[in-house]
Amino acid sequence: MLSRVADSVFWLSRYIERAENVARFLDVNMHLTLDLGDSIDQQWEPLVATTGDHKQFTERYGQPSRDSVWRFLTFDHENPNSIVSCLYSARESARTIRGSLPSELWEELNKFYLFVRGAAVEDALEHSNAFLSEVKRYSQLLVGITESLMSQNEAWHFARMGRNLERADKTSRILDVKYFILLPSSAEVGTPLDVIQWSALLKSASALEMYRRVQGRIAPDQVVGFLMLDRDFPRSVRFCLNRAEESLRAITGSAEGMFQIRAEMLLGRLRAEFEFTQAADIIQSGLHEFIDRFQRSLNEVDSAIFDNFFATQPVITGGEQLSPVTTE
Amino acid sequence: MRLEDYETDGFYDEMFDEQGSPRSRADAMAKRLAALSDGELVRRQKAADLTLLNMGITFAVYGHAAGTEKVWPFDIVPRIVDGSEFSMIERGLKQRIAALNLFIDDVYNDQRIIKDGVVPAELLFSAPCYLEQCRGLKPPGGVWCHVVGTDLVRDGDGQFYVLEDNLRCPSGVSYVIENREVMKRTFPQIFGGLRIQPVEDYPERLLETLQHVAPSNGHSPTVVVLTPGIYNSAYFEHSFLAQQMGVELVEGSDLVVSDGYVCMRTTKGLQRVDVIYRRIDDTFLDPKTFRPDSALGVPGLMEVYRKGRVTLANAPGTGIADDKAIYAYVPKLIQYYLSEEPILKNVPTRICWDSDDLKYVLHHLSELVVKPTNESGGYGILIGPRATADELRQYADLIRANPRNYIAQPVLDLSRVPTIVDDHLEGRHVDLRPYILYGQKIFVLPGGLTRVALRKGSLIVNSSQGGGSKDTWVLAEATNQWQYQQ
User: Fold this and answer.
1) Nearest-CA distance from A228 to chain B in Å?
2) Residue that wins the pLDDT comparison between B219 and B23
3) Annotated domain spans of chain B
4) Are A323 and B269 in contact (CB under 8 A)?
5) Domain boundaries defined on chain A
6) A271 vs A248: CA distance, rounded Å
7) What is the fold of B349-410?
8) Is the predicted pLDDT of residue A54 greater than 50, yes or no?
9) Phi, psi of A150 (to 5 degrees)
């Protein structure tokens, strides 16, 4: 397939996944702040920190409040990671490759964008649950269309790889929220409030019910283990890395355990690390530090994917080599 | 809803005759419209508008901010064409395209038409769309114009006339297909029992045409659609056609000339391309042959084309037949190349390049429609009877400064079709653009794009200037006399 099309498919599905996860972030924070009572505005700062746009936010909005964080993350056209910006980018990507997508996918994405663009800020804030649910519903619908209407060809694998890499990143950030959310005092560790907070994290990844079936009671290291390392839960980091690697190998044709290109090597290494790690190791090395390191590794994978597949320059003329996919 | 108040205002109306009774081809439709409860038609129109918005059927408008998308204005009252009338149009178009194709081939090769004194050499070579670089080209099968959209209008006398030929990159066919789709989604009742000729097979026919003209090299040909990109006004159509044909939509930067062939850059390296359905203008195709500043094209493309290793559809150089001064000669071209009488009439045309015609035009400017010979999209047109004295004076100066650039025609009374205005129907002027494919044979899509001037009294149907469109129903010939049953 065309490199340009591969690039757009990859980003298209990432942007949709990103929009869904921003909705999940907002959702979890709404719940957490409601339980915390009056110190509401304070608890919105962590959200800006975890989404990684702290500097931009402070420059434009100053002190985080519920209103300003909402605006920033939902309808702010200048924030490239706001829900509306994600959808704008997803739609523009889709527009450039409309010919390669099922019509239904384009049409639903277009409706999704029109829905968010047409929503009024105040209304969405007032009925936050309805708004966020609708964002999640649309995203799931698009994934469903991709699954049931697209041939499982190269384009599909690029879409799946993009979605899973994005989801791995965001699930790790959801966990990171807990690092920033402060309990009123250290004496409250393990209290009902603490349990509620950990549950809210699971809920925001739609993981609470699945967690209960596997682990039963809420325990911090088990929650970390579930969201990071579970083999079977489709939003756990390990699961996502697995699927992303699977798709990457389907694209290159490499056998399991082998690699031809740098992206495969880096992603395979990262996936292996998650397969051979325990929750206790993560807690011991420091949850926040672990997540930080993970995100740096993920960035390297991203840039290798860009170099290996999307960079438009390194096309070699003639010959039978697998270019622009260079071999290491 | 009431149709009794509908006025034809002395124009030829596609649905009603002079007495206000439905024409036989539109009888069932009129009954169905009359049977609708109040407000139903407007509700259906709103549903159609929403469907178009959701489907993202848009076009970009130049002169606004880059990438401004507008939803395609669509009126749900269809325009109905009689089957036997359309078969006359079909024969006429086949004849016309066959002659024009021979003409283009002749212009770039033997130039018999000049030697035999049918078309003046000076007029031909001064056409901005004549490309010296195309001399000696021999496209596969001798086909130059693979995809054509010809604009027809029906005048007050009830006859169809050819208004202009579009042999470069005619657009709009995707709207023909999508208009039908939207009608089926939002107003299915109105179809019941009518035998309307389908338009949905166009992408299949187009692919067949493109594959047929591929260079023969023993493998199944790879076809692509070449677009200037998402900011082009017809981008929707480019992506639609690629999607419907199941081929790649490429931009110039996706293509590269390698080892004497045109290839596309893929995630698995370079892949050879055999046929390029290009939707960019001739002079942007190859910066090495044409405009060196073109960033949309592929350097070296023309060299590969000249060697017969890739097919371009349409072939470069076809624009010569679009020139509106050449248009005036088409009836003569048909006689010259085919020894036949033209089936479809031309609008009587005066060529300002000719000094007698120029004198006449300047003298009668306020009665004529004057058009630049090399523009499309309805730009730069003077409608004499509607112009102010100042505008006429300025336009006369333009003509005097460059007579070759202008032609003049009488003002036509374009036919009208009932169109929704607020909560009722009013007559609005329309034209008709059928689409013609030329591969192994010539194929005319039964139907075409009916463009409608939505502004009251306006004659300009271009979407960039307040025009909309309608679904066009060509009835199957055998069922002209069906009865309304219900």
Assistant:
1) 31
2) B23
3) 349-410
4) yes
5) 1-150, 157-311
6) 12
7) Dna Ligase; domain 1 (3.30.1490)
8) yes
9) -100, 135
